[in-house]
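#lab-general

N.A. 3:47 PM
ok so I finally got the sequence cleaned up, no stray characters, all 121 residues accounted for. can someone with queue access submit it? mine expired

B.Y. 3:52 PM
send it over

N.A. 3:53 PM
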Amino acid sequence: MKILVDMNLAPRWAELLSRQGVEAVHWSIAGSPKAPDTEIMAYARDKGYAVLTRDLDFSAILASTGRDSPSVIQIRTADARPEKIFKPVFRALSGLTAELEKGAIVTIDMNTVRLHLLPLR
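B.Y. 4:20 PM
back already:
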């Protein structure tokens, strides 16, 4: 699995994911911090990354375009520091690898994980 960490999450997310064997890069390394979400999505799609974010715009882009990639992983907690939520996020990602590789939106909070396969209908 390959994960592109959005600007609204700390670069530490990419470090922790990499330590767990996930190919992960923070957007600040891959592209311009001022890039629009559509550019981030295009990069992720072209390079085979899923996008890890707190931003609901990525799901909205998938819904409006009907695309089946890239996968989006949304963290929906007030405190998204990796020290607080990394374990449940990584557990969810580990259990949904096949779905994320095919195309999905995964929404994770402290108590639930929701999965929507792409394309959205």
